[in-house]
Amino acid sequence: MAQWDAEWLVRSEGGVRTVPGFAFLCAQPSNVRIHLLAIVDAVRHTGPDQWRDTTTHDSMEENCAHLHEARDRQGQTLYRLYLRWQRDKRRVVIIDREPPPFATADDFARIALSLTP
Predict the structure, then answer these.
(1) Torsion of CA 105, 110, 113, 115, to 10 degrees
(2) Is 28 exposed, middle or buried (0-12, 13-18, 19+ CB in 10 A)?
């Protein structure tokens, strides 16, 4: 079975584009970034409906049942990366809280350059 594609949500407000999921990951310790992205990658290869480890990836409940989260617990802190699996398009969207549009390479470059001292 082929792996699912991945996209990143981009948000535009006042003419400024941001990539909330990427910005969130950039603000986390490197071990958390690596682990959360590894979980997403593993679920992309397995498929969200076949993934059984609910401590690392699971759907949310009630109003957010259409969303999933990749989880990494470090001590008392639980890090969550929010996802939306679009089954009809076989892709996962790494999101904040709203549906697409998607990020472009320019969005990632702008964020990375703004993080440089």
Answers:
(1) -110
(2) middle
One-letter amino acid identity for 60?
M
Q: pLDDT by residue (tens digit) across 84-108?
A: 999 999 999 998 654 445 666 777 7
Residue 32 has pLDDT above 60, yes or no: yes
Pull the structure tokens for residue 42.
Answer: 């593993």
Overall CATH class of domain 5-115: alpha beta
Q: Which tokens hold the place of 63?
A: 């109003």
Round to whole Å and give the CA distance between 59 and 75: 22
Domain boundaries, the chain: 5-115
C-alpha span between 79 and 70 (Å, rounded) = 8
Phi, psi of 27 (to 5 degrees): -85, -5
